[in-house]
Design goal:
Layout (H helix, E strand, L loop, with lengths): L1 E5 L3 H13 L3 E5 L2 H9 L5 E5 L1 E2 L2 E2 H11 L4 E6 L4 H9 L4 E4 L4 H31 L10 H13 L6 E4 L6 H11 L7 E5 L5 H9 L16 H4 L4 E5 L6 H13 L1 E2 L8 E2 L3 E6 L3 H6 L5 H7 L2 E4 L7 H19 L5 E2 L1 H9 L5 H15 L4 E2 L6 H4 L14 H15 L3 H8 L3 H13 L3
Parallel strand pairs: 1-2, 1-3, 3-6, 6-7, 8-13, 8-14, 9-10, 10-13, 15-16
Antiparallel strand pairs: 4-5, 11-12
Helix pairs in contact: 2-3, 10-12, 13-15, 17-18, 18-19
GO molecular function: ATP binding; sequence-specific DNA binding
Protein name: Response regulator of zinc sigma-54-dependent two-component system
Organism: Pseudomyxococcus hansupus
Length: about 450
């Protein structure tokens, strides 16, 4: 790592240099704020140790100037005058850590290792974003939404631990995507990521799915079968829609979380497992606890780190960018140039409430690409419930050319008809004529 040491005491700078170089770091030194900014201008720096008192200058005043020049710099404030208020102020101004003097080589190494791990996580997050965006269009971790940015930041910090994580949010907000991202950023990333969808099975079958069974445990159990807990050994077990789990199975899961032990159905042998549990829900679990549908002790075990995902209507900054990502993705799949969004379509997308969140947006954009062959997506390419949010469309008698009216009418009929032949029948023209019109609209000529 490239490290900058800013301290007005030569002995401190020398001691830190020797220590840091022993850990394989490249070190630059500065005794004053101006020298620190000059050293930063020489090239990128990963980590900076900054003394609180730099002669008559203040390290706290220098801190935002360093971050303005290098926003991704990890800054550690060092001082012999450590107070709680100073630590809080340092963090408020952007410091990542705080180290009181005198410090030991072990403490320095801990800070360096933590900074290095933070860099690795940031790099992994960037790589993951690229991989996911190619495979799953909604799996983007790039966001302009403060609420979503906060959720991803908390998720990144959670990746450094094995604590249980509870993802909360409405259906379609991307809880499964973030669960997989958490696994990919964690130390368990080379081990399995296993999903269990809790609402899809009866209590007995879900217990078997989770913990496995032995032959004869129930009707149809013709052989021993390991469960998802064993399949996820060393990795991450994702329990989707955990609120749907029955009370009896909640008790079994609680014991597993407490003791890391379980038994297969029909077997007396106790087994151990090392998995990280991530759960997700779209329900108010506290209300379920109050009404006796969910165990309070299980909620505490699952909710060590809570990450709340905002709904799509709470992140309007991301909506059009997501829509364009879907357009590009599905256009590649259809091997056609990606169409543009008309101003009316953008207005409509922003006005609609999106109760199904990102999943609904994805489906709407995929449908629009299928039914609307023109080079510009208009509101009429979308289902009526969405199109209505944009207000009335093109009205007869308005300031529109005959060509524009014909184009919109033809596209609307094609969007509602099950086949091209049926659309041609409704329009009263040959299918070949309609096919030529469609090609014309796809090329953007009309």
């Amino acid at each position: 790592m490239r490290v900058l040491v800013v301290d007005d005491e030569r002995n401190i700078r020398h001691t830190l240099r020797v220590c840091l170089e022993g850990f394989g770091c490249e070190v630059r030194e500065a005794a004053t704020p101006d020298a620190a900014l000059a050293a930063l201008a020489q090239g990128p720096v990963d980590l900076a140790f900054v003394d609180l008192r730099l002669g008559t200058a203040s390290g706290l005043e220098l801190l935002p100037k360093l971050l303005a020049e290098s926003p991704h710099l990890d800054v550690v404030l060092i001082t012999a005058y450590a107070t709680f208020d100073t630590a809080v102020e340092a963090m408020r101004r952007g410091a990542r850590d705080y180290l009181p003097k005198p410090f030991t080589p072990a403490q320095i190494r801990h800070v360096v290792d933590r900074a290095r791990r933070h860099r690795e996580l940031a790099s992994q997050l960037e790589d993951l974003e690229g991989q996911l965006s190619q495979a799953v269009p909604e799996a983007t971790l790039e966001t302009a939404s403060p609420a979503m940015h906060a959720a991803i930041g908390l998720l990144t910090r959670a990746a450094t631990s094995d604590a249980a994580v509870l993802l909360r949010g409405e259906s379609g907000t991307g809880k499964g995507v973030l669960a997989r991202a958490l696994h990919s950023m964690s130390a368990r990333r080379r081990r399995p990521f296993v999903t269990v969808n809790c609402p899809t099975l009866s209590e007995q079958l879900l217990a078997s799915e989770l913990f496995g069974h032995v032959r004869g445990a129930f009707t149809g159990a013709v052989k021993d079968q390991p469960g998802r807990v064993e399949a996820a050994e060393g990795g991450t077990l994702f329990l989707d829609e955990i609120a749907e789990m029955s009370p009896g199975l909640q008790a079994q899961l609680l014991r597993f979380l407490q003791e890391k032990q379980f038994e297969r159905l029909g077997e007396g042998r106790t087994r151990k497992s090392d998995v990280r549990v991530v759960a997700a829900t779209n329900r108010d679990l506290e209300k379920d606890v109050a009404e006796g549908r969910f165990r309070e002790d299980l909620l505490y075990r699952l909710n060590v780190i809570e990450v709340k995902l905002p709904s799509l209507r709470e992140r309007p900054e991301d909506l059009l960018a997501l829509a364009l990502r879907f357009v590009a993705f599905f256009s590649r799949a259809a091997q056609r140039p990606p169409p543009e969004l008309s101003p009316a379509t953008e207005k409509m997308l922003l006005a609609y409430g999106w109760p199904g969140n990102v999943r609904e947006l994805r489906n709407a954009m995929e449908r629009a690409l299928i039914v609307w062959p023109a080079a510009v997506l208009e509101p009429q390419a979308f289902p009526d419930r969405i199109a209505a949010a944009g207000g009335p469309g093109m009205a007869l008698g308005g300031p529109h050319s005959l060509e524009d009216i014909e184009r919109e009418h033809v596209l609307r009929v094609m969007a509602s008809a099950p086949t091209l032949d049926e659309a041609a029948r409704v329009l009263g023209i040959d299918a070949s004529t309609l096919w030529r019109k469609r090609k014309k609209y796809e090329s953007g000529e009309g």
